[in-house]
Design a protein that fits this description.
Layout: H1 19-32, H2 53-67, H3 99-112
Helix pairs in contact: 1-3
Amino acid sequence: VNAEDALKRPRNIIANPNCTTIQMVVALKAIEDISHIKRVHVSTYQAASGAGASAMAELQEQHRQLVNNENPTISKFAYQLAYNLIPQVDVFTENGYTKEEMKMFNETRKIMHS
C-alpha cells in the first residue's frame, strides 16, 4: 500500500496495523489510485478469541449450556455470545464511536496518507 514509507523509518522498524485495517486498506488503495474515496462504511466480524481465553471458555460453556437446554451464563460480555453477533467491539468514546472504530479510522488515515 505504501512501500515508500518503509524506506523512511529512522530505526528500521515497521509497525503492522490492526488486522481488519490492513485488509481494508489493500482494497482501498486500488480504488484510491483510480478515484478519490470520500467515505467508507465498514462492518467487521471479530472472533471471540480476540477477547482472550476467558472469552473462549465462556463461549464454549454457553454452547454446552444451550445444547443441553440450559440458560447460558453471561459474564465476560454484556450479552450471550453463543449463536449471536454483538454489534459492538470495545467501549464508546466521547465522539460516539468505539475505540476499535477509532483505531481503524486513525490507522487508515495514516497508512493512506489522508
